[in-house]
UniProtKB/TrEMBL annotation:
Name listed for the protein in its UniProt record: Peroxidase
Needed co-factor(s): Ca(2+); heme b
Disulfide bonds: C55-C131, C88-C93, C137-C337, C218-C249
Record: residues binding heme b: H211
Site (Transition state stabilizer): R82
Species this chain originates from: Zea mays (Maize)
Function: Removal of H(2)O(2), oxidation of toxic reductants, biosynthesis and degradation of lignin, suberization, auxin catabolism, response to environmental stresses such as wounding, pathogen attack and oxidative stress. These functions might be dependent on each isozyme/isoform in each plant tissue.
Subcellular localization(s) per the UniProt record: Secreted
Length: 343
């Protein structure tokens, strides 16, 4: 993409960043007028700038720490985005995935490859120094996901409502079983899973666009490539792309082996993912499943331009960030994100 450094950060300073965000905001307005990805109608008690009086530096601290960490680790945006998703889809956006109690949520099989916990710890430590006991870990997870993705643009890609509180009960691995979409899921299963969280078809397609960055374990991909010891390629896979996947994920693959979710630009948050999925180059079976449904395929075509994708993604992230939140006097504000307050 023109105007970017090798790390993906836009050149041109705040003027370029402000221009790009303005374009996205304009597209967001058009999307709202078409009512294609509207917000949940009920406001669960969240607000913009929730900490304006109680901790006015909160969001700037989150952004500065997150950006410093992303500068040192370009893989972090995908990890923090996935952390937020996995938190919200299990018991709601309550930071339960961060807890380290015995047999906690993070020990469930779908969460074993989730990362970014140390980044949240670092952010929480700095926020606590400025405003002890004020800012929830759940809000930090939501803000850090936004800020990590936004690093390449030099400005926030979407607004985050805040005011979430943290879960006050131990999390359990059993809570995550069946709650998170499987990389092998078909279209019907994906749509039902999203619907159970109050999210619709547009949200499913828009949030699947998060796979424009990050990696998948080869164990999530090899069933599409091999059957036993023989090659048996999923017919939905483009043949050339299947060969590329086989190169990255041989049979058998090491347990730690990974492959990019987006074969074209896995380190850049962009809309090219959709075109590649429609061309049979979706890495996961669950991504390929979207192209098999006419309505979802049309949505992917509609979101294939950057501004359309960023606008729809922004709205769907806001919806996801409202799922079963704790607000008001519910829950607690954890002193440490990995453990429940005992006093």
């Amino acid at each position: 993409m023109r105007g970017q450094t090798e790390t993906g950060r836009w050149r041109g300073g705040d003027g370029v960043a402000a221009w790009w965000v303005a374009v996205v905001a304009l597209q967001l307005g058009h999307s709202l007028s078409r009512a294609r990805a509207g917000l949940l109608e009920s406001n669960p008690g969240l607000a913009y700038n929730f900490y304006q009086s109680s901790c006015p530096s909160a969001e700037s601290i989150v952004r500065s720490v997150t950006w410093a960490q992303v500068a040192a680790d370009p893989a972090l945006p995908a990890r923090l985005l996935r952390l937020h998703f996995h938190d919200c889809f299990v018991k709601g956006c309550d930071a339960s995935i961060l807890l380290d109690n015995a047999q906690s949520e993070k020990t469930a099989a779908p969460n074993l490859s989730v990362g970014g916990y140390e980044a949240i710890d670092a952010i929480k430590a700095q926020v606590e120094k400025a405003c002890p006991g004020v800012v929830s870990c759940a809000d930090i997870v939501a803000l850090a996901a936004r800020d990590a993705v936004s690093y390449q643009f030099g400005a926030s890609l979407w607004q985050v409502e805040t005011g979430r509180r943290d879960g006050g009960a131990p999390s359990l691995a059993s809570d995550a079983l069946g709650a998170l979409p499987s990389p092998f899921a078909g279209f019907g299963g994906l749509l039902a899973g999203f619907a159970s969280r109050g999210l619709n078809l547009t949200d499913l397609v828009a949030l699947s666009g998060a796979h424009t960055i990050g990696v998948a374990s080869c164990s999530s991909v090899t069933p599409r490539l091999y059957q036993g010891n023989a090659t048996s390629v999923d017919p939905l896979l483009d043949s050339a792309y299947a060969r590329a996947l086989m190169s990255s994920c041989p049979n058998p693959s090491p347990a730690s082996a990974t492959v990019g979710l987006d074969g074209g630009s896995p380190a850049r948050f962009d809309s090219g993912f959709y075109a590649r999925v429609r061309q049979g180059q979706g890495t996961l079976a669950s991504d390929a499943a979207l192209a098999q449904n006419a309505a979802a395929a049309q949505l992917m075509a509609d979101l294939s331009t950057p501004a359309s994708f960023y606008a729809a993604f922004s709205m769907s992230m806001k919806k996801m960030g409202r799922v079963d939140v704790l607000t008001g006097t519910n829950g607690q504000i954890r002193k440490q994100c990995r453990q429940i307050n005992t006093s």
